[in-house]
Automatic annotation (TrEMBL):
Keywords: Hydrolase. InterPro entries: HIT-like, HIT-like_sf, HIT_Hint. Residues 37-104 form the HIT domain. This is Diadenosine tetraphosphate (Ap4A) hydrolase.
Length: 136
């Protein structure tokens, strides 16, 4: 049996916030935008390879996370994408956006400006709020 591990590039780029259902939720280290990543505990590499039960679980966490981002971060929109060109492990980006954000209206990929990381207090507040918002 293989132990689930988050890809090393995701670990380098993100804070691991916790496990929700059969998914880990990460937060990009760059503090410009609320850029979260859902990593399902699966061997599947693409969304269409998930079983029906796995897809329902991933969609549930992704949808709950999008609602959390809109409320907690007061974002107008969320951009959701499963792009595995650089990191082959299945992961779903859920990015909070608003008109006039640092990348607006372009995608975050390749347009994210340097920004200071979130403080430990900010990360703890996010973790606490996520615990209330996402399924265990």
């Amino acid at each position: 049996m293989t132990v689930f591990a988050i890809h090393e590039q995701l670990q380098a780029d993100c804070h691991v916030l916790g496990g929700y259902g059969a998914c880990s939720v990460l937060l990009h280290r760059n503090g410009s935008l609320p850029w979260y990543i859902v990593v399902p505990e699966t061997r599947a590499l693409e969304l269409d390879e998930l079983s029906d039960a796995e897809r329902i679980a991933v969609d549930g966490v992704t949808d709950a996370l999008a609602r959390f981002i809109k409320g907690f971060h007061r974002c107008e929109r969320t951009n959701v994408a499963a792009i595995g060109n650089r990191v082959p492990q299945l992961h779903v980006h859920v990015v909070g956006r608003w008109q006039g954000d640092p990348c607006w209206p372009d995608p975050v990929w390749g347009n994210l400006p340097d920004a200071p990381p979130r403080s430990e207090a900010q990360l703890q507040a996010i973790r606490s709020a996520l615990t209330e918002a996402l399924p265990a």
